[in-house]
Design brief:
The chain is 36% helix and 11% strand. The protein is of the alpha+beta class. Among the domains are: 39 residues, no CATH class; 66 residues. Strands 1-2 form a two-stranded antiparallel sheet. Strands 3-4 form a two-stranded antiparallel sheet. Helix 4 runs antiparallel to helix 5.
């Protein structure tokens, strides 16, 4: 028996042995190139910036009706403006929930408006669902027929899902009745 490699001897030749071809190009490995010439270490550099021109001052103030508004001092006026004008509320008092006093005005000039929020309808709806849940649980405990028990459990699961969806503050706020006077 003869090996196959001896039968096809002309097929498997290295590139260097092919007639008429030049010497193969050298392949470089990544390690060889970096060793030939060292790279400059990469570092961050601090570049100081010029001082910027002031762009003004903002603060929370009140408009003519006593409603909160944002006030602004232009940079040219900041030098003459007082440190804190008298009608500016104290930010610490606002953050703590205390109302800062607005400048006094005649109460006859103002239109006093109040808003009331009524969640009675939502509360009644939630109470109705809770009673329905209690009744279904009692019916399940008293029922002996398995098919009726399964139907009641399905209804109970539906009522529980609806109750879970509606018994929260977000639902109450969204479905509350607001009246302005």
């Amino acid at each position: 028996m003869q090996p196959i490699s001896s039968l096809i001897s002309g097929m498997a030749q290295s590139p260097g042995t092919v007639s008429g071809a030049e010497e193969p190009l050298k392949t470089r490995r990544p390690g060889e190139e970096t060793q030939a010439r060292p790279l400059k270490p990469v570092t961050d550099e601090y570049v100081p910036e010029e001082a910027r021109e002031p762009f003004g001052r903002y603060w929370l103030g009140r408009d003519e009706d006593g409603a909160p508004k944002i006030c602004f001092d232009h940079p040219d006026q900041t030098e003459e403006a007082p440190e804190k004008p008298e009608d500016i509320p104290d930010m610490d008092a606002l953050n703590q929930g205390k109302s800062a006093e607005a400048p006094e005005k005649n109460s006859s000039d103002k239109n006093v408006k109040s808003c009331t929020c009524n969640t009675d309808k939502v509360d009644r709806e939630i109470e109705k669902l809770k009673k329905q849940k209690q009744e279904l649980e009692q019916q399940i405990n008293g029922e002996k027929d398995e098919t009726k028990v399964e139907n009641l459990k399905v209804k109970l699961a539906q009522v529980e899902r609806e109750l879970k969806q509606k018994d929260n503050d977000t639902y109450r706020r969204q479905h509350a009745v607001y009246t302005f006077s």
